[in-house]
Amino acid sequence: MPYVIGALLVLCLGLWLATVVIGIVAWLFPLFVVFGSSWAFVSTCLVLAGRGTAQAQLVTPNDVVNGTAGLRKPKGPFPHDWAWPGYLAAQWRRDLIASWQNGLGFIARGWQWGLNYGTGSKLRFASIGLTVLIWSGVTLGSLLGAAEVLVIGAVVLGIGWLGRGSLVGLLRGYDFVVRRLRKASGSCPVCYHVMAVPAYRCDGCQVVHHDIRPGALGAASRTCGCGAKLPTTVLRASKRLEALCQRCDRPLRGGSGAVTDIRVPVFGPVSAGKTRLVHAGLVTLRDRAAAEGVVLDFVDGASKQAFEHGEQLITTGGDTTKTPAGQLPAAITVRFTRGGSAKARDQALVHLFDAAGEFYLDRDDNSELEFLDHAGGLVLVVDPFAIGWVRDQLGGALESRLAQAHPSSGDPDQVYQVTARRLRDFGVQTERRALAVTVVKADLLTDLPWAADLCAGAVREWLNTAGLDNLVLAAERDFAEVRYFVVSSVTGTRPGHRLTPAEPFRWLMGRGGFALGRDEKPTTEAV
Predict the structure, then answer these.
(1) Is 187 helix (H, G, I), strand (E, B) or coil?
(2) φ and ψ at 263, to 5 degrees?
(3) How far apart are CA 238 and CA 246, in angstroms?
(4) What is the dihedral of CA 138, 144, 148, 150, to 10 degrees?
(5) Are the C-beta atoms of residues 410 and 465 closer than 8 Å to each other?
């Protein structure tokens, strides 16, 4: 009987102790929940601080280039640039995963330690009971805390994404609109590729960045993989970084992509006077620009050398060397700046292309002249002394005039048809472009009565009379606007001369976004 009473007393004592423990645990259960909830926030903070058991792997520029950063695949042929991505673009994913793993690992380790504590001893069941009572509260609190962290994180990330997206959209939109209004683009003088956004070379490590615009790699600025801070937007990058061609990686002219870019090919038959027109046109453009407070200078040594050579020929009356056949021309690039301003909006790059006349004799020969495809306007050079009707007028005493003119051997109408067909074959919308039909060598015609209308400015009617009515009709059908000019690359270089060779180029510059003086059209006709 005493044993039974002892057993009952022990049982009652055990039940009382269990009740007390359960009561205490129940009373402390909210604290366990709070502890677990707090740990969810602590775990997140540890991950963000780079501490904790599970640390987030840093998204590096190598991840960006290799496509392992979780960024959207870029459009175009190039991978993402070698730069640090913005936190809101990539790193947040890895931090979220690491935070989850850190919190989950802590809870799992607590369950594992409590359930295994006292294995093989009388404390095992007590440990299991306490673990279930205590750690279930911690686990519940952790889950609630994780949910709160997710909600808060989603709100913070959402606000961040909204702000970042707004900034990126604002900067991109401003950059695009300003450059569009300026008619700015990047033109490669070597491979003739034209791009809206040039590539840029980092001034720290010389790595090429193919898309400098605001985006996943930075909004207001980006950090190159070498640590150098680079500007975003083409307008800002063009002031500091070296611009490169997206196709051949060769350097572009200074200011490319941010300043008005005007491309003017000059085409015509062999020995029609194209090269002399370019030289004389640049010399007279410089003088005309200077009279209006506009400075003409150069952004590369080759263009400056070509200009100085041409200026010497024009001022001394020397003979122009024929452009080598079969050799693709490099652009002669000049920069016009209003009032010496350093602002990109007051500048323009003008690229003149002068290919040998042999390129325009056959459709297959000019397939490589890609600069024709990207020109806003073209100059067709017409040598009047190559026209049969003019030759018929130069009989007798005037026959020596023909030899003096060194007439071209090609037919201007044939050259035009071959070139126009080439443009159509390459998908060029000529109906959106302009054509300056320019009759040259007018100084040899001013004393001839049958050329009086031509020298007075009635170029279109004179061409019809001279038998080039088919050329006139085709040009006005193909192009959005055609103007007719008569110039002299000899006498027209004098200031204020009505036969100035600057007029065709000045007109096309005005259409291209950089007006130089008023368009009075003294010797032209608009169609």
Answers:
(1) strand
(2) -115, 125
(3) 15
(4) 100
(5) no
Q: Which residues contact 156 (CB under 8 A, 6 or more apart)?
A: none
**CA 193/CA 344 separation, integer angstroms:** 22
Residue 162 has which token pair? 């909204």
Say which amino acid occupies 302: A
In contact, 110 and 135? CB cutoff 8 Å? yes
What is the mean pLDDT, run by run of 10 residues, along the chain of 527 residues?
61 56 55 65 72 74 91 88 91 82 74 68 64 68 74 86 93 95 90 93 94 93 95 94 94 91 93 91 92 90 90 83 77 89 86 87 78 92 92 77 83 92 91 95 89 89 94 96 93 84 94 80 40
Q: Rounded to whole angstroms, what are the CA distances from 128 to 107, 114, 115, 124, 140? A: 15, 6, 5, 6, 17
**What is the C-alpha separation between 175 and 88, in angstroms, rounded?**
22
Buried/exposed code over 362-399 (b: 16+ C-beta within 10 A; e: otherwise): eeebbeebbbbebbbbbbbbbbbbbbeebeebbeeeee
CA distance 261 to 393: 43
pTM (whole model) above 0.85: no
Of 304, 347, 305, 355, nearest in space to 327 by CA: 355
